[in-house]
Design a protein that fits this description.
homodimer; five-stranded mixed β-sheet; alpha/beta; Maf protein; Alpha-Beta Plaits; Molybdenum Cofactor Biosythetic Enzyme, Chain A
């Protein structure tokens, strides 16, 4: 199977403000054909650097997609650079020029002289008409390498790719299918997890495995590439059937659902409701739970108790308990969760109290409470991380405690 | 002045789901030193392709920044590829290994065997310690080309770059003074703002002006590049003295402080306290206020009232008020803020109630209340945005209402 590279052209894509996002769309399209994207490059509007990038890509890969640089101005150099990299000339097409002029006239404007630049085509290229803009695309096959020159605006690029590049690629490529699966886990570090599952995934040859640490969670991405969709589906299913038991309850979703979506579905299925009592996180847990649309089906609300006084006043935590154990303690976390459950009348309540830092003693020490119809439990966590992560990671543990509890409860 | 290239390493960055965003931060930092980024590359975890990318970059540019691929697993290949591109060996450092082990032990876990991979350093490299993770960075100068090997997670990369790469780069580069100023504003759209201030900034030649829309706020970045610090300082000061009066009270900070930091400082100076009552945002406002260290000096806490029942029960909003006006209305926003103020005994209280969507009627309609010692006020906002932005943008308005109120109050 051929490999692909994507070259995004435009000096604005080399500023701190802009990212090339067309490549995500193109990667998705190419992957679906069984083509891997092996490199992505961003280059500015500079003839020599651009020509050099094109030559490099063509020497390594069999498909080269160029996006951008097809506009009418002096610094739109993709046409010139491709022609010069391939040693071909640029040929003026009067019929393209007429189409551009007609398009601009339809907007009630007069064609500027520099729009003529867009009517130049690399010798031997197939022209890809553009319904959405003035810049036509180009399709060139040179020494077994396919070059696609596509306009930068996504509204122009996408229909051109799907309408004109896809059919051409499908004719060129052997039939292949890719199937993927995401296993999302919480409660285990990246290297421990890798050590546990690498003996499995390294045995598979057609399977690409990626392990990602995302905000305190670990996500495992399995991707199978086979001759038929059935084979690919069988392969990811088989690998994930081997990997899942090793991770056990740590796997919270296999379909890309987030932790808050998973607990939402569990609560909804059990007709159960939830509330929160937050100190260190001061609302982040509630904010995260309600990131899910329709979370009002199960989320009642709760309390942000950022001072001892508020814990006493809003949650009914006994002042003596705080005096004796401090506000960051197992008994206070328990009393907070129970206070939220009683105060809102919810079935379940989660509490978080801790030292987020950066200053003071015991930074990173957090107690997380869960009150439920059959009693309460508290987990103690010690994070080495900074304020932002102490707070974010603590919401993971809270949601995970609830998830494990809900899974253990019969419907 | 030398040019830079950035190579982001990681097969996950070649999937349709992920973008390399570290390069935006790095570009901003390098630009501030007067260094242009001329190419960005994304390559997967594959030894040969990675080595080839490193060799290409080193042949073209004088600064090569590599991000990612420093983790503990088999597919973390940046160290190996750099060593092999430069023809140097990798050397095991026992002291780094000890630090990694101590760090992992602090989490209450045992170091996995593969973490030892992270203790290998390219021969002759300076080690860049990592306070936030296990992977140390590396700084190598080879044939006049600087290589920086930085960890992928932004929380680890940023402090390492600022603390350790910046000072080294400043020593290497010709003196050029760059002075910047951030004017942060809230309450005006990007194009209206640009129309207002562009007649000013376009008159300056040595001044780069960038206008950024950031989560519903507009930030204006002024950057002067001159031969001496004095010249650069004078230039940004002059430009910002011209621009600020045009924007008036919309400018909330000139030093990069966030809106939550600004209101924190205002509250602290007035010995005043704050609480919240959140419906649509369900904790995001509290979470944001407490992102500031020591926010417990002025933030008391509050209420997450995600149902009518909770608004009645926790905040004392009269049931008839909700029945008559609905929960998303001016009177209910007012009653929520007043209920939070009374319930916590704080000087000020903010409330948010609205329809975040995506389904249902009036999506994007939000009422934001402020209760203060001299009465209450409510703002009605209609956002055209999606759920995530309706929620995030509403916290901007709430904080900005409080800011304007506090500014108007004499100390």
């Amino acid at each position: 199977m051929p490999d692909a590279e994507i070259i995004a052209v435009g000096s604005e894509l080399l500023t701190p403000q802009r990212l090339d996002t067309n490549s995500l769309y193109l990667t998705d399209q190419l992957n679906a054909l069984g083509v891997e994207v092996v490199r992505k490059t961003v280059v500015g509007d500079e003839r020599e650097r651009l020509t050099d990038s094109i030559l490099g890509a063509a020497a390594r890969s069999q498909i080269v997609v160029l996006t951008g640089g097809l506009g009418p101005t002096e610094d739109d150099l993709t046409r010139d650079a491709v022609a010069s990299a391939l040693g071909r000339s640029l040929i003026f097409h009067q019929n393209i020029c007429d189409l551009i002029e007609a398009r601009i006239r339809a907007f009630g404007r007069k064609m500027a002289e520099n729009n003529r630049r867009q009517a130049y085509v690399v010798e031997g290229a197939e022209v890809l008409p553009n319904d959405r803009g003035t810049a036509p695309g180009q399709w060139i096959v040179n020494d077994g390498v396919v070059f696609m020159l596509l306009p930068g605006p996504p509204m122009e690029l996408k229909p051109m790719f799907e309408g004109q590049c896809l059919p051409r690629l499908e004719k060129l490529l052997p039939p292949q299918a890719i199937r993927t699966r995401w296993l999302r886990t919480v409660g285990m570090g990246e290297s421990d997890l890798d050590q546990l599952i690498s003996p499995v995934y390294t045995r598979y040859t057609n399977l690409a495995t990626t392990i990602l640490a995302v905000s305190g969670e670990i996500h495992i991405h399995l991707r199978a590439r086979c001759a038929t969709p059935q084979e690919a589906e069988t392969l990811v299913a088989q690998a994930s059937t081997e990997i899942e038991p090793l991770l056990g309850e740590r796997v919270y979703s296999c379909n890309g659902d987030s932790l808050e979506e998973v607990i939402g579905n569990l609560l909804r299925a059990r007709h159960a409701s939830l509330s929160v009592a937050e100190s260190a996180t001061a609302g982040l847990l509630g904010g995260r739970i309600t990131a899910v649309p329709s979370s009002s089906d199960y989320f009642r609300g709760g309390f942000i108790t950022y001072s001892d006084q508020m814990k006493i006043r809003l949650l009914g935590v006994p002042a003596e308990l705080i005096a004796e154990h401090s506000a960051v303690s197992e008994p206070v976390a328990k009393a907070m969760a129970e206070g939220a459950r009683a105060g809102t009348g919810s079935d379940y309540a989660l509490s978080i109290t801790g030292y987020a830092g950066p200053d003071g003693k015991n930074v990173g020490l957090v107690f997380i409470g869960l009150a439920s119809p059959d009693g309460s439990e508290v987990r103690r966590v010690q994070w080495p991380a900074d304020r932002e992560r102490v707070r974010a990671f603590s919401t993971n543990i809270a949601l995970d405690m609830l998830r494990r509890k809900l899974v253990s409860v019969t419907h």
